[in-house]
Amino acid sequence: xxxxxxxxxxxxxxxxxxxxxxxxxxxxxxxxxxxxxxxxxxxxxxxxxxxxxxxxxxxxxxxxxxxxxxxxxxxxxxxxxxxxxxxxxxxxxxxxxxxxxxxxxxxxxxxxxxxxxxxxxxxxxxxxxxxxxxxxxxxxxxxxxxxxxxxxxxxxxxxxxxxxxxxxxxxxxxxxxxxxxxxxxxxxxxxxxxxxxxxxxxxxxxxxxxxxxxxxxxxxxxxxxxxxxxxxxxxxxxxxxxxxxxxxxxxxxxxxxxxxxxxxxxxxxxxxxxxxxxxxxxxxxxxxxxxxxxxxxxxxxxxxxxxxxxxxxxxxxxxxxxxxxxxxxxxxxx
Length: 334
Ligand code: UT7
Fold this sequence. Notes:
Number of strands: 15
Largest sheet: 5 strands, mixed
Order of helices and strands: EEHHEHEHEHEHEEEEEEHEHHHEE
Structural class: alpha+beta
CATH architecture of the largest domain: 3-Layer(aba) Sandwich
CATH class of the largest domain: Alpha Beta
Shape: globular
Bound molecules: oxa(dethia)-CoA
Strand content: 25-35%
Oligomer: single chain
Helix content: 25-40%
């Protein structure tokens, strides 16, 4: 009889951001804003933006390479690669190119889109494949290049975002460290945050009665206040649900790891959940909001800095366009 392990361990992490950085003061040279406004309203001080030599594939591959190296696995042992992104180099998907660059010859690879919730949804998806015994080693990447899609004249959005990629390796194990999750969507609020197809502006008439739409997307548009209110209300709920499923109390959490959208959101969620500030992971001052990459970049930096240690329990939550939101509670390490 075939036997397999269906516990889940987190065995490696990696991240990558572009080398080109933009400070708040630098931004105020081309859009009407100030360091004072951005710092006090968001906590962001700088963000990295992809240059012409960067791509979603190159950033994702670098983060993935580091994660695989730190897991101690060979790339050829990876069974599945999930790439959470809303900004692939190729609308058909970018995961396969990353698979090829890594030399992960045995892996099946595909993209998964859930905006800033993408990484949480992807590790949860990965966990299902490991639980069922289908795959042993899964590489999960969160990567986005939103700088390609913001309107650099719109101060309400362009100051918020940065580019980057982060990755983790999850492997089948005799002990189980993926403890609980909750994922949610509410498409009735879709209009609050969009990077949407803009066919009308580019229709092409082929025949009198046949007009097709050409591929064009309008830049990111967001109702910041609506999304803010949504995040502060909904994120604590899913964290509590995931903790309930994990049979853990708030006190058992070593780290609160939220999507890095706004320091005020992190503070408000932590305060609602009565989690002290020293347990809240925050790196948005240095990177801004990197969408699907923000959670794995913050996780990787905390692991490499030695603050997150093997055995630590992490409550992570993502939220954003869709609208989507979700939480996962897991323990770092094997
Ligand atoms: O990753 C996906 C999830 N996204 C989020 O979670 C974002 C959630 N929302 C937020 O973080 C906040 O709503 C923002 C940071 C986007 C905005 O902060 P806010 O405190 O909600 O500001 P606001 O939109 O209410 O704008 C206040 C004022 C407005 O001026 P008036 O109308 O009061 O004169 C804006 O025009 O601030 C102005 N403003 C700016 N001023 C200088 C907006 N953006 C800027 C800017 N620089 N960059």
